[in-house]
Amino acid sequence: MTAVQGQVKARTLGELLQTPEYAGRTPFDGQVRTVQDEVRENLTRKLRNGEELFPGVVGYDETVIPQLTNALLARQNFILLGLRGQAKSRILRAITGLLDEYVPVIDGVDMPDDPLNPIGAEGRHLLEVHGLELPIRWLPRQDRYVEKLATPDVTVADLIGDVDPIKAARLGTSLGDTRSMHFGLLPRANRGIFAVNELADLAPKVQVALFNILQEGDVQIKGYPIRLELDVMLVFSANPEDYTARGKIVTPLKDRIGSEIRTHYPSDVRLGMDITAQEAVRAEGVTVPDFIAELIEEIAFQAREDGRVDKMSGVSQRLPISLMEVASANAERRSLISGDTPVVRVSDVYAGLPAITGKLELEYEGELKGADVVARDVIRKAAGAVYARRYASFDTRALEKWFEDGNVFRFPQSGDASAAMRSTKAVPGLTEIAAQVAGSGDDAVRASAAEFVLEGLYGRKKLSRAEETYAAPEPEVRQQRGGRWN
């Protein structure tokens, strides 16, 4: 016996048959516990115990997860259909948590094979030769997940395998013997989960081979019929634009995918904020006020609704995650220079424009204006939306009147926060409103709040903005509002 993470594990088939789980079993007894059975049993146990099924997957509790659970309980293969940045790959990888911690496989073979009921010619041969002395090893659950990103150049040999003439000559077998094969990814995923990302990008003949080896257990490789009755759970992901418009998934394969599960972006800003907070990597000590975190998330929501952004491509959840990271880094850089407390401000969000522009696929109108202009406009709309949602009841008439009288205010971008807060006293009511928004006596947080208030009023078209300077609205905006200051 050998120890695996504190557990004593059998090293031979004879030792395995002495364990309580395998007592009474015999080789080739036909008692096969498939991967789908294994996942179903562990899922059932977790449901009964009230355990979390897919840690780290946020926002799908009422939609995707119930449908996914049903598919797994029904022992079905499935496809996740959704735009980019909707946690499809994360969900597929999370299913490994429903596998057993370890399973025994025959040692010394390329394809993981059941010691009691091997399906490969090499495994069957070793069992006949060694009998109860058949060496086995224990395969951890993380090694039982194989993932392939589909691209048009993927071949049948990549997924299924190819004939190896040198191996055939060394073993003295014919080229049609499975022992002469160099196995591809799918056979190496035997007794595990095989995931294909962006399924629609696979060539039709590869999709047919994939379907045939799973459903019929056979495939032709270079004219030689190869038979492999694999025990694999097959899971897919695809983009709905590719899946429906281009129609690249062959009909027999589509027909045999058990469930089609639609993913989606977060349904509200708070869920999005939870995802971003979970995924974004920030330096310790950098503070992100709640109103700034909401602004960053709202930018993604506004971009998804903007007519200049391509709806079919979507706006990935990676946008607010990347923006949060870059904005936090800019706040850290500013603090290293000034020695001030690192608190994220609106100006740091603007410094994160590269994290926005690279993730927007623009329509013709957006291309004419340019990604930078569109991104700045989206930030403005997002600031106005968050301000209206949170602080629309604040009385800002005195502040607006001060700007209407021709005054201009430049929010300090350098120096410490205390100096920035002293400068805000020039704008009637701004210091007091910022204190209410901040909910904190820390000058760095209040400075962030003050800049957010000005940006929010700009987003609601009550002020104008040029770089770092705030002023009265443009004349045409003032005329549209009837000259009234609310």
Automatic annotation (TrEMBL):
It comes from the Bacteria. One of its GO terms (molecular function) is ATP binding. Gene3D superfamilies: P-loop containing nucleotide triphosphate hydrolases (3.40.50.300). Residues 178-240 form the Sigma-54 factor interaction domain. Coiled coil: none annotated. One of its GO terms (biological process) is regulation of DNA-templated transcription. InterPro entries: P-loop_NTPase, Sigma_54_int. This is Magnesium protoporphyrin chelatase.
